Structure formats: structure tokens, C-alpha cells
What we know:
Elements: E1 8-10, E2 14-16, E3 25-28, E4 41-48, H1 59-73, E5 80-83, E6 89-93, E7 98-105, E8 152-158, E9 164-171, H2 177-191, E10 241-248, H3 250-260, H4 268-284, E11 291-299, H5 305-308, E12 321-329, H6 330-335, H7 338-350, H8 354-366, E13 377-382, E14 400-402, E15 407-408, E16 415-422, E17 428-437, H9 441-452, H10 457-463
Parallel strand pairs: 7-8, 11-13, 13-16
Antiparallel strand pairs: 1-7, 2-7, 3-6, 4-9, 4-14, 5-6, 8-9, 10-17, 11-12, 15-16, 16-17
Helix pairs in contact: 1-2, 3-4, 4-7, 4-9
GO molecular function: acyltransferase activity, transferring groups other than amino-acyl groups
InterPro entries: CAT-like_dom_sf, Plant_acyltransferase
Family: Belongs to the plant acyltransferase family.
Amino acid sequence: MVQDELTVRRGTPSLVAPARETPRESKPLSDLDDQNCMRIYLVGIYAFRGNASKQGVDPAVVVRGALAEALVHYYPLAGRLREEAGRKLVVDCAGQGVAFVEADANMALDDLGEVRYPPFPRSEEFVYDDHVYMANLPPGLLLPEIIGQPLLYVQVTRFMCGGFIVGTRTCHCLTDGSGVAQFLKSVGELARGADSPSVPPVWSRDIFNAREPPCPSFPHPEFQEPAGGDDRLMYTPPHELERVEFSFGPEAIAALHSRAAPGKPASRFDLVAACLWRSRTAALGYAPGDEVRCGMPVDARGKRPADFGREIPKGFYGNAIACTVACCTAEELCGRDLGYAVGLVREAKATVTYEYMQSLADRMVLEGRPVPEAKRTFTVSDLSNVGLEDVDFGWGNAVYGGPPMNALYQLPGGATFFRRRKNGSGEEETYGAIYLPKDCVARYMKEVEALTTTITETALRARY
């Protein structure tokens, strides 16, 4: 079979409520949870191969039962959102339930083609979506209505080979990527016979609320329009964009390190983000004085309490991320060495402390929950250590787990996700993709190649 012959037949959708009585209460979200930019659904695809020990076991029945058990512990996910004064979001927890649908595909999982890496083939067939979309938005912008709607949608699609796919849509206001992974791992544990999740969920949304009174203590340039002219990327129609994949193995990382930080430590993320930001900027041909940015969501869970200023409770599944930006002019970024870009990326990440996140919450309350500025901003998000592939409902770990794409053009300016995998030689590589206007691709590829080509020790000595 080929992909074009795929047929997925969905059953009748229903609601899955918590398996037992849960508290009836209202729970306010944090001032980071209810940002306007979080009012979307995070899409996930989790693919599993058949397992001989599970012959005759219906994965949809298993997932549905474990989901009901998990909602006893994560009962706010079964609730509904309402909006109070100042666009403050509150979850009304009354056990309303999450949306669930079973489906069947007319082929084997392997007939889809390569399912280990994004983009995941025909992903739209495996994710249930009956959302009502908001009206009166700018042309081309579709945002789902989240008020009064299910906060989680789950579709289980069975394949003829015994494999299956679990597709999810999770309201971003309730959780971030790490929180989604925590929840789905809990569902998996319960599906495999556990009495309760090994990591109990923690609400504690008050830790990311605005101070009283709000007093922003950081400038937060991510909300300010960058200086300079227009950004052609934001106005390029999707059919004129080309998706360009990248993969950075040990040799490429070594070459980047030799240019950016010889003899000094540098993370893979910093090196790859700086390389792509610089190459993309050069390819898009911005004016020398145009301000360009690299935007990065930073997860507070990955920071040491000594550096961050507070310990995030284990089991916290709310939004613990803040966006920060590295900023400079196009001339500075492309006219100086790669180490300059790496330094800017590293410094921007280091600004995200607990005080920074409090300042962000303060600004949300004072300024009507603004959204980050996308103009001339290259947004990168590292999903390498989130653990989305570790979800296991009893058939073994997912052969694929995470967003169906490794780059998005739907967001203004686009967004890129970093992932890691083993290459044919068993070496770890960082991979992903970006979208560019078609006439910029050749220049971009040339810039990346120049930065990832190993330079000789003689040239290094001459340069440094």
C-alpha cells in the first residue's frame, strides 16, 4: 500500500470522565498559564508497534480505561475553562470529561512509510479535532475556542498489524510539553497496572502569579517590535515557502565548536541555534541595521535552584516556561564570528530566573497579556529532553512521540523544534527543519555548509 490509499474510519466521539469522584471546585490558572499565546492546543502523535504478548487486547479499551484512572489524579484536565475579569482563566472542575474517539486504519503502521522521525505522515488523520474556531481574527489566523471546550482530545487509531497511534490535542493553558509528557507517562503507568502515578501531579500555579502590586523588573524585549523594516518571511504565502531539513552530527558540532568556542564549553543547543539563526538571517537578506532575534522558550524545570532562585516542585505540570530573545542587528550577527551569536544565545537563556518569570507574570497582568513579537524572530524550541518518546501503554515505548512536525510555518515568522536521534553509525545528532522562501534556500545552505566545515588548526591559530 501507499500513503494515498490510507483510510481512517472514526467511531462516535464520547467523553471520558474520571473513574471516580473528584473534587468539585474552581482552580485559577497562573498568570503564565493564561497568556494569550498559550490559548492553543498542543498536538501530539504517539505511534506503537504491535506486540505479540498483546494479541487480542484492544489498545483503545486499555487507553480509555487508563485515561479515566489518570483523570482522578489530573482532574483539572477533565474540567472546563471560563474567563473572568482581565481575561483571567479559571478551571471549573466538575468531572465533565475529555473527548475520546476510536478509529481504524486500513493498513499496517509500516505502510505509512518512515514513522520514526517528523514530519509524521498523514498526521491529520490521527488527531481528532472538532474545535470551534474564533471569529474576527486576521486573515489566515485560526485560533481554537478554549472557553467551555474539552481541554484534552484523544484519538486511538488501530492498524491491521496490531500497532496503533494515540493522537492528542492538549490545551496549552493547562500544561506545557513537559507537563504533557508527565501526564501521558502516568496514563501509561496506570495502563500497565500501577495503582497510582509514580510522580504525583502538583498544581501549585500560584508560584507563577504576578506580584502584588505588579512590578516588572526586566525590559522583556520579546514584546517590543524590533527596529528596522519589514520582515518578508511573515508575508510569504505558504506555497512559496520551502521546508529545509537539517542534521548536525558529531563532525558538524565539532566544526561549530571550533569556530565559536575553541577550548571552552558550549552546548549543542547553543551551537546549532546560533548557526541556524546566523545562516537564516544572511539568507533572508535583511538590511544591515535591521534588528534580528532568536526566540527561545526556556523551561524552568531544567534550571538548578541555585541559578534559578527557586525549586520547581517535582510533579508540577503547569506552564513553567518563559520566552526570551537574543537581539542584535543583522550586520552584527553576520559580520562577526559565530562565537558572538553563541554568546548572545547563552546570555538570553541565562536571564530566565524566577525573578524574570515573576516579572513576566507582572507584565501579563499590567499590559493585557501581550503576545511576543514575531517580526524578524527565529523561534527555536528544544524537545530533545522532554521524554515524549518514553510513553508506554504496555506495548513498549513509542517508536515516535511528539509534535507531528519539526517546523511550523503557521506561526508568524515560523518555529523550529530541535530533536535528537542516532544516525546510521550510532552517533547522536540534532535534527529539525526550518521554512524559508524558496529563493533563499541556496544562500542558507551555503551559509550552514561554511560554518559546519572543519577548519584546520593553522587557520584556528591565525583566527584566534
